[in-house]
Amino acid sequence: MPSLAVKMGALFALFGFALCSLPFAFVTFCLMATRQWKLARRALPYGERTLVMGVLNVTPDSFSDGGEFLSLDRAVAHAEQMIAEGADIIDIGGESTRPGSAFVSEEDELRRVIPAIERLAAGSRVPISIDTTKSVVARAAIAAGAEIVNDISGLRFDPAIADEAAKAHAGLVLMHSRGTPKNMQELPPADDIMTEVISGLQKSVLVAEERGVARESIAIDPGIGFGKTLEQNLELIAKLDQLVIAFAEFPIVIGTSRKSFIGKLLDNAPADQRLHGTIASIVASVMNGAHVVRVHEVRAAVQAVRVSEAVRRLEYREIS
After folding, report:
1. Which domains does the chain have, with CATH numbers?
2. Are residues 45 and 88 in contact, defined by beta-carbon separation less than 8 angstroms?
3. Of 27, 63, 83, 272, which residue is most buried, by most CB within 10 angstroms?
4. CB 256 within 8 A of CB 281
5. 228-256 confidence digits (pLDDT tens)
6. Residue range 96-125: average pLDDT?
7. Inter-residue contact 240 to 201 (CB < 8 Å)
């Protein structure tokens, strides 16, 4: 039977199209209402304004900035800079998920992320997110002050992550991915990427709820780059409004920043030369319904989001 998310999406869709005949106008209508994403120690408003999640990789081998923030002082300073530039969330990761990467031990991941989380959570005005697929790391990160768990496996690797999020009433980002980081780009392409992403995320939501995670604490992410082809990544961005409808109860998170599909479109530009392409993908995502954008260059993203939202508000006024 269809999940509650699908049923609610259908109801919202019927209401939206009764209000106006344009799909874009419906998505705009859904976005304008401010809603609350419930985290461990606060509720984060989303909808009227797109949130910016700043990336902090404390890894030696991440695809775009590996090794740059291994020093605790440099990591904290960079996070504080992103907050000053307008980041609404800081997402800290201690394990690279670049294509071809292998899992690291729990001990190594904990050693990398916990000191940074403790320092930032003690004095930061924005919530801290832990980017991990391990329940042990999630538990320690929440104890250190993290309020969100960002799981790129959508609970496929370690469903007990949902237990930790539920116990702490933490936010939980469920991302769609295929395979593992080590083999995801070697898998045959999905026949219908939209169907696979929606089905996979519905399963992830069901697992999270069965383990006690509140619906208002869940966010979803289509997983740009994780086992998708160039064309499929573009399709997911272009059809993001379909995810807004299918998952009308949840904030939509998207991470396009510096991804390889942008490099391929820009004559194989290296990761540190993909800013302009990243901004174009952020604008497209915001216009198509993203509630949270996950980025490396916060200042540029905040400015792009602000302009995109001004256009979107004008569109809403014209159809309302």
Report:
1. 4-319 (3.20.20.20)
2. no
3. 27
4. yes
5. 999 999 999 999 999 999 999 999 999 99
6. 89
7. no
The Cα-based distances of 295 to 185, 224, 260, 318 in angstroms read: 22, 13, 14, 31
Judged by DSSP in three states, 60 sits in coil
Query: Which of these, 49, 13, 47, lies nearest to 33 by C-alpha position?
Result: 47
The C-alpha atoms of residue 49 and residue 146 are separated, in whole angstroms, by 23
Q: Determine the residue type at 182.
A: K
Nearest to 296 by CA among 82, 66, 59, 50: 82
What percent of the chain is modeled with pLDDT above 70?
A: 84
Taking the mean position of all CA atoms in its chain, how far away is CA 264? 22
pTM of the shown model: 0.88
Q: Write out the catalytic residue numbers.
A: 259, 294
3-class secondary structure, 243 = helix
Residue with tokens 């006024």: 317
